[in-house]
Amino acid sequence: xxxxxxxxQTLFLVVIALTLLAPFVLNPFPEGSELAQFxxxxxxxxxxxxxxxxxxxxxxxxxxxxxxLSFGHAAFLGVxxxxxxxxxxxxxxxxxxxxxxxxxxxxLFSAVVGYISxxxxxxxxxxxxxxxxxxxFALAYSVLTPITNGETGLQLALDDPRILDVSRMDGSIxxxxxxxxxxxxxxxxxxxxxxxxxxxxxxxxxxVMLVAFYISLxxxxxxxxxxxxxxxxxxxxxxxxxxxxxxxxxxxxxISGMYAGLAGGLMVAMDPLAGAERMQxxxxxxxxxxxxxxxxxxxxxxxxxxxxxxxxxxIFSKINDNVLYNWFxxxxxxxxxxxxxxxHPFIGKGWHLTLGIMFMLVVIFLPGGVVEGGQRLGRxxxxxxxxxxxxxxxxxxAHPAE
Length: 402
Known about the structure:
By secondary structure, the chain is mainly alpha-helical. 64% of the residues lie in helices and 5% in strands. The strands form 3 sheets. Strands 1-6 form a two-stranded antiparallel sheet. The protein has a two-stranded antiparallel sheet with strand order 2-3. A two-stranded antiparallel sheet has the order 4-5. InterPro entries: ABC_transp_permease, LivM-like.
């Protein structure tokens, strides 16, 4: 199916199922229960899961296949966001032109940055991409204020021309839409104590992510993907065969930048605002963490890594001392104070400490990320099942005692 072998086809079907059924999967706890705060099945967070999943999938094409570590991919995310908002301001509130133009502008900018940065490799390449990202941030923050609106951020206004659409509706800015279907449209489904939210904006992002994942899958299995792996393994040996690695690495860089632009376009399609902070080095570092945490060079790893980090950022960071005291209310007050004192540095605003420790443990003990952890568990269970199934069996050459 779709040119995939049976293993990749199964993986793709699993990703489709998990993505489409996300409102159920991410809301395991009943509404109103103490554990409901760990539910992540609300539209804004689900959209972030898939959008940053796209960002990480694109980054993985560059870093996971070629080994080139870029610290400047946030620049392409920002360029895509700005281009998307300008399309919403000038043309129409339909998100399709905004998304397409975001990808195009990010691709053009990444071609320029890649052409210059790929003249070097290793740490020098990383520093060059970081320099471009910081220059882009500085330009967006101050120099290009007429285009980016500086520190305030670029946003929609009532006097925007929107030549293909209405400028205002009922005295307010119209909502972003997909051929008339608003991104905020959706409905709730109540099943007993559970409430599941189905949002059209999320499903648009989810479909785009599935297409992006499929393209990534085909790239990984293509001769082009094999050439990128050869670049990562040994560039000098590749040159001895008569192949020039530069066109391949530049193509991977541009594709990766276009993925970042796509993520930026989807961001503004869901929330029409673009700010310079999306170009900061911390945003570039975040996608590196996502890819390594999930498993660099794997297909599913970047999506899992993006989900883990965004879950920590939006759910785990909301736990405060009051929640902890509520959890340990069955203990004596002195014991409650001790437990809260021990856990407090790792929650709330300190969630970065928890993330850092988790990242450190993954790098030390699971270099392949979450995917490698899942593979190890799978091998362990298969070994146990095989030993259980053969433990009481009689060997073919065994004979009953006479």
